[in-house]
TrEMBL record:
Pfam families named among the record's database cross-references: Salactin
Superkingdom field: Archaea
Organism encoding this protein: Haloferax gibbonsii
Stretches the record annotates as Disordered: 1-23, 48-78
Residue spans of biased composition, Basic and acidic residues class: 65-78
InterPro entries the UniProt entry points to: ATPase_NBD, Salactin
Signal peptide: none
UniProt protein name: Uncharacterized protein
Length: 359
């Protein structure tokens, strides 16, 4: 590995251990909306994900946890929750305190040992205070005594998309992360990150707000929904391959339930979102060609790696591929990891295994 793929980054500096037991390898992606965790579990890797939030008044992560090892999914519905990573890192002292509790309790819930090799999938953010808060918090969560390192989230997510090992760190490609907070794009040249780009103009959160506005407009102002409901519509109803209008209801006090039908309020904001993504990505490719022509030419021959929660919407990736090809006037190939939500944690875990075994 070279450069980004070989050096410790924001999550801390490698520390060595005198223990003879093999440290547990752990990969973690703390997201603004959801956190994913991949770790050694016997001879296999176990992956879980859950909301990046604390239930109000409790020192424990909220429920709604998905287990990706064949186990059951546990669901809880706390009435009041606290998110602490809305920008991808804990931006304030209060967020940092909540995040430290969240990280500590998450590690305790899954019995992660102190003697572990941990890789954190890091978002691309321009927030020195938030990154410092992040480093301090994960340093107090009681894991990573064998080593603790951070790598770019988009690189980690590309690893399971491009092979069964860590082939991605030896290849040249462009990665696109369609996240809740930001759209991220960058080129990788054998592990070296080139021209990292971040935009909040095309994000899952922005789509949620647009859906809420579109539903209000479609119902003539009779219905207002919150961003959480808009996000639920996006995640459970959106489909670029065949969207079906649906009926929902809201309570209006003494008036009782008011039913309404959504026909355009979900897919029109998502259409606009994809147009914004294509525009941002075309601009990125133009700047990449200007500053790193050789890398641009090599990357054109490789699939574009797409990850992030928005990639889970049925038909979205295929529609992105078609629109981008039309805009660039050339064929475009897109590859997506099996689970875009947990891919960054899975890739981070593979890096942790490699770094642990090489130590």
């Amino acid at each position: 590995m070279t450069n980004d793929a070989a050096a410790a980054t924001d999550a801390g500096v490698t520390s060595e251990s005198d223990e003879t037991d093999v440290p547990t390898a752990v990969g973690v992606k703390f997201g603004s909306a959801r956190t994913a965790l991949a770790f050694d579990d016997g001879d296999a890797a176990r992956t879980v994900h859950l909301p990046s939030r604390l239930t109000d008044g409790e020192d424990a992560p909220a429920g709604d946890e998905g287990v990706h090892d064949g186990g059951e999914t546990v669901r809880e519905s706390p009435e009041r929750v606290e998110f602490m990573l809305r920008s991808g890192v804990p931006a304030t002292a209060r967020d940092a305190e909540s995040f430290e509790r969240f990280a500590r309790e998450l590690c305790a819930r899954h019995d992660l040992p102190a003697e572990s090799a941990v890789v954190y999938a890091m978002p691309t953010v321009d927030d020195d205070v938030g990154l410092a808060n992040f480093g301090t918090a994960v340093g107090e969560c009681g894991i990573g005594e064998a080593l603790a390192r951070g790598f770019p989230e988009s690189l980690c997510a590309s690893i399971p998309a491009l092979g069964d090992g860590i082939e991605a760190v030896d290849e040249v490609f462009v990665a696109l992360n369609l996240g809740a907070t930001n759209l991220e794009a960058c080129a990788y040249r054998r592990g070296e990150r080139l021209l990292p780009f971040v935009s909040a103009e095309a994000s899952g959160d922005r789509v949620d707000r647009r859906i809420a506005e579109a539903v209000e407009a479609e119902t003539g102002g009779r219905v207002t929904i919150d961003p959480a409901t808009a996000r639920e519509y996006k995640e459970t109803r959106a489909d670029f391959g065949g969207f079906d209008p649906f009926t929902d209801a809201i309570e209006r006090g003494s008036e009782g339930a008011h039913e309404f039908t959504v026909e355009r309020g979900v897919m029109e904001p998502l259409d606009e979102y994809l147009d914004d993504v294509v525009a941002e990505l075309c601009d990125f490719f133009s700047r990449l060609a200007s500053s790193h022509m050789k890398t641009y030419q090599l990357a054109r021959a490789r699939p574009l790696v797409v990850s992030g929660g928005m990639a889970c919407i049925p038909g979205l990736v295929e529609e992105l591929e078609a629109r981008l090809a039309a805009e660039l006037d050339r064929p475009v190939s897109v590859v997506v990891p099996d689970d875009p939500v947990t891919a960054a944690a899975e890739g981070a875990h593979r890096l942790a295994v490699r770094l642990r075994d090489a130590a």
